[in-house]
Amino acid sequence: MGPVGPHPAVADVRRAVREALADVQEGALVLAACSGGADSLALAAALGFAAPRMGLRAGLLTVDHQLQPGSADRARTVASLAPGLGLDPAEVLTVTVGAAGGPEAAARDARYAALAAAADRLAAAAVLLGHTRDDQAETVLLGLARGSGPRSLSGMAATAGRYRRPFLTIPRATTVAACQALGLAPWDDPHNEDPRYTRVRVRRRVLPVLEEELGPGVAEALARTAAMAREDADALDRWAESAYQDCALSDIGGSVTLAVPEVEKLPDAVRRRVLRRAAIEAGAPSGALSATHVLAADRLITRWRGQKAVDLPGGLSVIRRYDTLILAISPIP
């Protein structure tokens, strides 16, 4: 009898990491963001196994949010696992979480800022994140509840700049099984059971009800929907970017002027993307620019009755003058 291969769950997580890193240049450093939970611990272990076989260097980052007693000790414990997983360097990143946007958003912002700074300092080619198919399904449901359009429904990207998410097609149960097979003991963050957090309520209450009422496979179907929605949204974004270049008469000095005849002949989804692109180019903060703002600007094209300027975030105004749409910081000359 030949040698026995790895546990199927271990093989799955290793394969996912190899595929996610297939285009990374040999000799580059790749970092795993690891909280100590099953998802990120399986990710770190898979990276430690795959990286040397691909000619890559691999390290680990863990973030101490300072939100729980003993968090510093927990972070040091996670970092101490790195040598046994074949990961070096290993660093604890200590952050201070603010209050802007609520506790979940504030913690996320602090975490990503710390990861980005560490990746820059260490000249890492990529940072791996342990989001699974279940996380993707939760993200889609949250986007659906917000009514924020197809881009939100497309969920998390497998690759976004330096960040890569190898496990978006892998269920959370696989990462748990991989840790068990490897003899790793994940840490269960109490925040993952706290119903004050919206994502926890979706995970513990909403998805189980959907599975019970609609049958198994809801999470898989939502993740599949996210992948298709992302393809569509990406295609529309590329079309809108090309259309913006055709419609923009000027975009210099914090103002943008669009040719109305060119913009108004575009399909709704593309035209509104062009308007959003123009508003951001003119100085509107992207995080504050809502669908309601874009629709108000859109009415200057589709329902033109000589109305006054529309105000957008960041002190921006949009006004129509004859066959041009001008977006600029108020007052518009």
TrEMBL record:
tRNA(Ile)-lysidine synthase substrate-binding domain ranges (all copies): 258-324
Residues binding ATP: S35, G36, G37, A38, D39, S40
Cellular compartments per GO CC: cytoplasm
Catalytic activity, reaction form: cytidine(34) in tRNA(Ile2) + L-lysine + ATP = lysidine(34) in tRNA(Ile2) + AMP + diphosphate + H(+)
GO biological process terms, semicolon-separated: tRNA modification
Family matches, as InterPro entries: Rossmann-like_a/b/a_fold (IPR014729), TilS/TtcA_N (IPR011063), tRNA_Ile_lys_synt (IPR012094), tRNA_Ile_lys_synt_N (IPR012795), tRNA_Ile_lys_synt_subst-bd (IPR015262)
tRNA(Ile)-lysidine/2-thiocytidine synthase N-terminal domain: residues covered: 30-204
Localization terms from the record: Cytoplasm
Sorted UniProt keywords: ATP-binding, Cytoplasm, Ligase, Nucleotide-binding, tRNA processing
A single MF term (Gene Ontology): tRNA(Ile)-lysidine synthase activity
EC number(s) on file: 6.3.4.19
Family: Belongs to the tRNA(Ile)-lysidine synthase family.
UniProt-listed NCBIfam families: lysidine_TilS_N (TIGR02432)
Function recorded in the entry: Ligates lysine onto the cytidine present at position 34 of the AUA codon-specific tRNA(Ile) that contains the anticodon CAU, in an ATP-dependent manner. Cytidine is converted to lysidine, thus changing the amino acid specificity of the tRNA from methionine to isoleucine.
Entry text on domains: The N-terminal region contains the highly conserved SGGXDS motif, predicted to be a P-loop motif involved in ATP binding.
Name under which the protein is recorded: tRNA(Ile)-lysidine synthase
The species this protein was found in: Nonomuraea cypriaca
